[in-house]
Amino acid sequence: MTGPDDVLLVHGGTPLEGEIRVRGAKNLVPKAMVAALLGHGPSRLRNVPDIRDVRVVRGLLQLHGVTVRPGDEPGELVLDPTYVESANVADIDAHAGSSRIPILLCGPLLHRLGHAFIPGLGGCDIGGRPIDFHFEVLRQFGATIEKREGGQYLEAPQRLRGCKIRLPYPSVGATEQVLLTAVLAEGVTELSNAAVEPEIEDLICVLQKMGAIIAMDTDRTIRITGVDKLGGYNHRALSDRLEAASWASAALATKGNIYVRGAQQRSMMTFLNTYRKVGGAFEIDDEGIRFWHPGGSLNAIALETDVHPGFQTDWQQPLVVALTQAAGLSIVHETVYESRLGFTSALNQMGAHIQLYRECLGGSACRFGQRNFLHSAVVSGPTKLQGSDMVVPDLRGGFSYLIAALAAEGTSRVHGIDLINRGYENFMQKLKDLGANVEMPGGTAA
Ligand code: EPZ
């Protein structure tokens, strides 16, 4: 349910222009916070954004006896796991449904306490989002898992043991699960078909600073030699390449010009190539990347999402809004999540022409081709967008609706905007800084 405070009126048609800053990656920071649980001694994490996912993990860690306090510099957290303890199940339960991070507490809690309770998980509704890989991995390390009311209870009767694991799919979360568990397990763990996203590399950097021994091969194999003890870390989180790409897409769709301070070329190379093919312009310097619409018409493209180093699925939704403004037929094949194109129906209501297909369109066949999921799209453009009423469906879909509303003629009402706070720090202020004409019906103009 959304209330009046959760609605944003967007008066479209103004190009977004100016500068915003992105801080640490939403898909790294909460995991680095969990890693602090493994250390003997405090850890310092810098460049931490003020987003809901960080607050949820902070609450969960505090429930388990970790003290979390601000450090000396803005955006710094000091996490001290000296007094880790079991949390009250009812308290943990209160976090049920709020995030997908709790599952990653399993390994660290099993090492520290010998048991763990994990509530039902939340996160974006973009497909089934199963956690079978996670539990299979934990069983291979020697954990037992029992379903209890409100969640899963795990126990490690003995010290967890390193093992050989091959993931059925290079899952980001399952790879992190293995890393966070293997570093203190006895012996060597060999993980093949691992995810190798930049956020995972950064988590490996965190763990190495703590004393872990982790080697990455070029063929998606990660080898972890367990150690007996880890210390704290001092780390500056890599910046959020997904948020940066969202603002880049906003610049393109609104014919704007945005300097994204903190955006990094290295983690965005695939996005930048695609942005250039669509006709977007960018300029990279040491502090960030400027993105803009150079004028003229945009080009239709064929796009397939994939695990890193492919085109990241979280980049897809915002860029699709820009593709509604490109001349010709664009093809989008979503191969990571089976239902990440549902958000396009609201774009069609605004005047876009996007048709969904169950077949794998474009390059290669994926896991969803035979399974009846609407996971391919043909976007035909350019189409004028008109303001409309819409409800935020998920984090990236929600930001995409903001972009569409800003690019449209007339006024849109975007309901459920609070969900965007999960992963976009201070987005209302950023919109204001970029000259967007938006207001809360309750009176707060931004
Ligand atoms: C992470 O989710 C991110 N979330 C997602 O970002 C991101 O889209 C995704 O990785 C892919 O890059 C966080 O880091 C908190 P996966 P995760 O395990 O780890 C299947 C955003 O908007 N799978 O790599 O949950 C799964 O269904 C969010 O920032 C299983 O089948 O993703 C999916 O099809 C959304 N069984 C595929 O693997 C499992 O046990 C990839 O999921 C686990 C996953």
UniProtKB/TrEMBL annotation:
Molecular function in Gene Ontology: UDP-N-acetylglucosamine 1-carboxyvinyltransferase activity
Keyword Cell division tagged: yes
Pfam family, any one: EPSP_synthase
Function description: Cell wall formation. Adds enolpyruvyl to UDP-N-acetylglucosamine.
PANTHER family: UDP-N-ACETYLGLUCOSAMINE 1-CARBOXYVINYLTRANSFERASE (PTHR43783)
One cellular-component annotation, GO: cytoplasm
Active site: C124
Residues annotated with 2-(S-cysteinyl)pyruvic acid O-phosphothioketal modification: C124
Protein family membership: Belongs to the EPSP synthase family. MurA subfamily.
Binding site for UDP-N-acetyl-alpha-D-glucosamine: R100, D314, V336
Keywords, sorted A to Z: Cell cycle, Cell division, Cell shape, Cell wall biogenesis/degradation, Cytoplasm, Peptidoglycan synthesis, Pyruvate, Transferase
Reactions listed under catalytic activity: phosphoenolpyruvate + UDP-N-acetyl-alpha-D-glucosamine = UDP-N-acetyl-3-O-(1-carboxyvinyl)-alpha-D-glucosamine + phosphate
Presence of the UniProt keyword Protease in the record: no
InterPro entries in the cross-refs: Enolpyruvate_Tfrase_dom (IPR001986), Enolpyruvate_Tfrase_sf (IPR036968), MurA_subfamily (IPR050068), RNA3'P_cycl/enolpyr_Trfase_a/b (IPR013792), UDP_GlcNAc_COvinyl_MurA (IPR005750)
Protein name: UDP-N-acetylglucosamine 1-carboxyvinyltransferase
